[in-house]
Amino acid sequence: MKHLVIANWKMNPVSTEDAIRLAKEEDMRDVIIAPPSFHMPSVRAVIKRGALCAQDIDPIDALSGPYTGAISPLLFKKMGVRYAIIGHSERRAHLGETDDSIAKKVHTALTAGIIPVLCVGETSEVRAGGYMNARDFVLRQIERDLDLVRGGVGKLIIAYEPVWAISTNNNDGGVIDDSESAGEMIQNIKAFLAESMKLWAQYKIVGLYGGSVGVNNIGMFLKERSIDGFLVGGASLRAKEFKKIVEIIHS
Ligand code: PEP
How far is the CA of 132 from the centre of ligand 1 (A)? Predict the structure, then answer.
């Protein structure tokens, strides 16, 4: 299987012109671009090879209607979007996202035919308790976040993103996860989903790693067989570095 790469632009860039420029540079096969929603139509208009991902969805089971401020997965789908990030740690930390709201979003996305990219990962406090503590925390998150889609079929992308490794800008010597431990965590996640009394065993699971992936560390993560791809934040705003990362992944 080819590695998947998702470019999570977060709340960047500000101008539509910059978003279009970035999209054109990052438009490559097996690359999925997740721009802010307000740039989605402009980005869609210039994407020819890659695919599109929402950074969040609202758990609304309708294409239109009286839902002020909402963007449902069906509406994203109509816009040509195939994936949606759900439960990113920044939304959990700053925007009141809970396992309950995430579970509803995962369910609504799958029902609408949007592939969820569920983000999970432990904080530094949890990790301070050791790897096994972190593993139990992550598996509990997954259990709660997938609670409403037990027994279903389809594709689920799980992005393991240790919170303490996100946006630490590895090129300046920040903190990144040890690739072996990241690979082991993703292996544990896959085993849990395959075995958990067969609740999620029918899903095709794709396991991504995210947390300061950059051109200087992608090589070591690529050695981990359990890692099927990457969620790239900061480096996806630097087109030259991002293209190099994708080149290394696909070489
Ligand atoms: C992210 O926030 O999903 C992410 C992986 O960000 P970064 O690459 O900047 O750590």
Answer: 23
